């Protein structure tokens, strides 16, 4: 079945089964490999993208359920504005990534948090980021980077 999606501001046509997870559409059909497969059960957050501005787990969303809603992946995040740029810069400045596997999910979740809550507390950060697991346990650097990004935006 052919679907027309808006991915990172561009119209993209894909031929996929209606129940194909968005993650595989993005990675295999659209060639956007920044979102990662981690668990396939929406529990690790490595596959996080924005759907209409909200962070979602793309590994469990059927492509048929996202038609008509803008999708932003890590590849298109920088184009969304200064919050995304501040988060990405803070990630670099504080050397947040270790293995890097979870980082696209971490960054996409952090962007969504700062867009909705520009000055988050530690508790806000912990709540917003709790669904994105980091096997390297860089949680203290992730929290610090979110605070740094928030400060740079004020």
Automatic annotation (TrEMBL):
<dbReference type="GO" id="GO:0046872">
    <property type="term" value="F:metal ion binding"/>
</dbReference>
<dbReference type="InterPro" id="IPR002888">
    <property type="entry name" value="2Fe-2S-bd"/>
</dbReference>
<feature type="domain" description="2Fe-2S ferredoxin-type">
    <location>
        <begin position="1"/>
        <end position="77"/>
    </location>
</feature>
<dbReference type="Pfam" id="PF01799">
    <property type="entry name" value="Fer2_2"/>
</dbReference>
<dbReference type="GO" id="GO:0051537">
    <property type="term" value="F:2 iron, 2 sulfur cluster binding"/>
</dbReference>
<dbReference type="GO" id="GO:0016491">
    <property type="term" value="F:oxidoreductase activity"/>
</dbReference>
<keyword id="KW-0479">Metal-binding</keyword>
<dbReference type="InterPro" id="IPR012675">
    <property type="entry name" value="Beta-grasp_dom_sf"/>
</dbReference>
<dbReference type="InterPro" id="IPR051452">
    <property type="entry name" value="Diverse_Oxidoreductases"/>
</dbReference>
<dbReference type="Pfam" id="PF00111">
    <property type="entry name" value="Fer2"/>
</dbReference>
<keyword id="KW-0408">Iron</keyword>
<keyword id="KW-0560">Oxidoreductase</keyword>
<dbReference type="InterPro" id="IPR001041">
    <property type="entry name" value="2Fe-2S_ferredoxin-type"/>
</dbReference>
<protein>
    <submittedName>
        <fullName>(2Fe-2S)-binding protein</fullName>
    </submittedName>
</protein>
<dbReference type="InterPro" id="IPR006058">
    <property type="entry name" value="2Fe2S_fd_BS"/>
</dbReference>
<keyword id="KW-0001">2Fe-2S</keyword>
<keyword id="KW-0411">Iron-sulfur</keyword>
<dbReference type="InterPro" id="IPR036884">
    <property type="entry name" value="2Fe-2S-bd_dom_sf"/>
</dbReference>
<dbReference type="InterPro" id="IPR036010">
    <property type="entry name" value="2Fe-2S_ferredoxin-like_sf"/>
</dbReference>
């Amino acid at each position: 079945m052919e679907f027309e999606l808006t991915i990172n501001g561009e119209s993209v046509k894909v031929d996929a089964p209606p129940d194909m997870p968005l993650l595989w559409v993005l990675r295999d059909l659209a060639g956007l490999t920044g979102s990662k497969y981690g668990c396939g059960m929406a529990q690790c957050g490595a596959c996080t993208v924005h759907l209409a501005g909200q962070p979602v787990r793309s590994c469990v969303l059927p492509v048929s359920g996202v038609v008509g809603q803008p999708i932003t992946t890590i590849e298109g995040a920088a184009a969304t504005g200064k919050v995304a740029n501040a988060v990405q810069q803070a990630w670099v400045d504080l050397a947040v990534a270790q293995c890097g596997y979870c980082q696209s999910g971490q960054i996409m979740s952090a962007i969504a948090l700062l867009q909705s809550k520009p000055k988050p507390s530690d508790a806000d950060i912990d709540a917003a980021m709790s669904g994105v697991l980091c096997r390297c346990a860089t949680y203290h650097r992730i929290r610090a980077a979110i605070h740094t990004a928030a400060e740079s935006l004020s």
